[in-house]
Design brief:
By secondary structure, the chain is an alpha+beta fold. The protein has one domain: endopeptidase fold (from Nostoc punctiforme), CATH 3.90.1720.10. Helices cover 14% and strands 25% of the residues. Strands 1-6-2-3-4-5 form a six-stranded antiparallel sheet. The radius of gyration is 15 Å and the shape is globular.
């Protein structure tokens, strides 16, 4: 066909337990805020879009975004959302289900980069 591409259009997935088994961390966050707040696709880009609203760990509120990095904002590799009581909701890595996890053990503590408020 003329004009056809190999890439399928990106469409929001319905909220079902099955779709949450195969979702990336940044897609989970993006979907949680859609359509009221439109966040970029990657964790690093989400940090860039919200970094002007940084939040300390002591002042986290439900819905704040938490980021982990291998070195600076360019090394951000993971985002999770704060759910309160010291926990986050996250899609930890490919092949693992979305989970509720303690902030202190969601990802390596030494990689914690910071939090923002979308």
């Amino acid at each position: 066909m003329m004009g056809a591409t190999k890439e399928a259009p990106v469409m929001p997935a319905p909220r079902t337990p099955r779709t949450l088994l195969a979702i990336y961390c940044s897609s989970l966050v993006q979907y949680a805020y859609w359509p009221d707040t439109k966040l970029p696709r990657t964790a690093a880009a989400q940090y860039g879009a919200t970094s002007d609203r940084a939040v300390s760990r002591q002042h986290l509120r439900v819905g704040d975004l938490l980021f982990w990095s291998h070195g600076g904002s360019a090394g951000i590799y993971h985002v999770a959302m704060y759910t309160g009581d010291g926990n986050v909701i996250q899609a930890p890595r490919t092949g693992r289900s979305v989970e509720l996890a303690p902030l202190t053990s969601a990802m390596p503590e030494s990689d914690y980069y910071g939090a923002t408020r979308p």
